[in-house]
Task: structure prediction
Amino acid sequence: MSVELSVRGLTKVHAGQAGAALDSLDLTVSPGSCTAILGPSGSGKSTALRLIAGLDSPTAGTVRIDGREVNGVAAENRGVGMVFQRPMLFPHMSVLDNIGFAYRAAGESRKRSRERAREYLDLVHLGDIGDRAVSEVSGGQAQRVALARSLAGSPRVLLLDEPFSALDPVLRTEMHDLVRELRSSLDQTLLLVTHDQQEAAVLADSVAVLIDGRLEHHSDIATAYTRPSTLAVSRLMGGMNEIAGQWDGVGMHRSELGELEVDGLDLPSGPAVLLLRHELIRLGDGDIRGVVSALRPTGFRSIADVSVGSTVVKVELAAGSSVAVGDVVALDLAVDARFVIER
Result:
């Protein structure tokens, strides 16, 4: 049965540093759910995981697993599994013996530990390579083996520290599919660290954004995209449009795009930035007209720069769009594409 993971006031100040690597983190991961900790390099993501895993000691704060404080509990006794960016397999052992290492360390026979390890090797769809040496497996296979080894310890919480960042896009997608499959079969509580907002969207139920060691946002994925707490969070979630203007404090933002109604905000009147999600803007029959000033391919789709006066609005175009530079277009800004935050 899955358990809740919670941290309160979790802080880490490294020796010789004036600022905190992690500053008063409050975060709860519900049983059976997956939360992604998202942030740029040096934001405290991996520090948080190391403190939760017991690989480092906090300066302040508590870690609780299933309601029990585990601050003084050794890493191997916390019921936490961890998969790192590199597989870190034992090079002198076979694939199967790597996975069964925890059972051997606990005193089980080699035969029994291999039998139990094979169950987890099958879970990651590598049942036919158990007898291979670690040096004979590919990078993607090695990471699957590392995942199986972590699961073999029957952890109550599984921590993933950017484990797929070194893989090529195809292998990364395969690992994402595997993690989703394992979640449905194992009812596992997961905490994922990543710098990739797309990976967070694919794997997680919620996203916690760390900036300079502090939690700036925590919500479901859709809210993080469309209702970010700060400009930094918006940019980290791939936001492209920041329109300077004035907010009337009631429900109207005024800018070079005109007067646009925005629902559900509690901000005082004054300077404010209108955020427009580029994926939610459509070219159609809207009242805002502009000229396509640039096109940038992004794979199967493309991003159009639409100039409205001196303001440029970026719009994601559907595959096969015939829009060309110089075209006059009308922007349809759906209400759910708009959000206003303080400048």
User: Anything to note?
Assistant: The domain at 239-342 is CATH 2.40.50.140 (OB fold (Dihydrolipoamide Acetyltransferase, E2P)). The chain has nine helices and 19 strands. The chain has a mean pLDDT of 92.
